[in-house]
Amino acid sequence: MHTREEKLNAFGRLIDVLDTLRVKCPWDKKQTNESLRPNTIEETFELCDALMKNDKNNICKELGDVLLHVCFYALIGSETGDFDIADVCNKEADKLIFRHPHVYGNVKADTADQVTENWEQIKLKEKDGNKRVLSGVPDALPSLIKAYRIQDKARNVGFDWEDKGDVWKKVREELDELEAELRKEDKNKSTEELGDFLFSVINAARLYHLNPDNALEHTNQKFIRRFNYIEDHSIKAGKPLTDMSLEDMDKLWNEAKKQEIK
Known about the structure:
Order of helices and strands: HHHHHHHHHHHH
Distance between the termini: 37 Å
Shape: extended
Largest sheet: none
Number of strands: 0
Oligomer: single chain
Number of helices: 12
């Protein structure tokens, strides 16, 4: 691993390269906060994909791409005189110090749970108590992650189940209500109840310290692997998937499942 000086030199080198590109590269010259935003979203998802796959080489690469975007936004900020990369770093360091009084102050917190319990109250103090508990959840978050964050923030101020086992009553209640509306074929009500049911399942996952987004993505990847196995066999057989029977597909699906177990 590199020394502290080598790390700082590497960061400085990246800043120097970006400064040069901003002046000499036609593409970099014309970028704005607005034009970079879609690329930032894409790079963030590519990093998340590498993290899910635990692809060490790609994690390193994608972290660099995300870091480049952070530095680029800071460079644009320096051009307008609003802030620069030093302001970005110092503000983040100040925030971390303020939010970790158990490290930099006299507050006692020996476990991660104790740290989390203090987290929301500390963040509220940053806004002199005028910031709403749920206002820190970005509107643009994917719905599943947003639901988890909403529930977690509510928990941090004491709004939560006293016995986590009770959440399953709520899950079953929401499922019953969803099935009732589906039988009535009321699409609007069914949609509403589906949302309530999903919200309750996410809540259950949170209470049992399971990340529902990670869990769902693992299942997505599992489905892709097994479905690709079916498709590979259809290609080898020269038979389109649409010509395969569901029975044949199920047989191949179970073969793929058995191979994963091995």
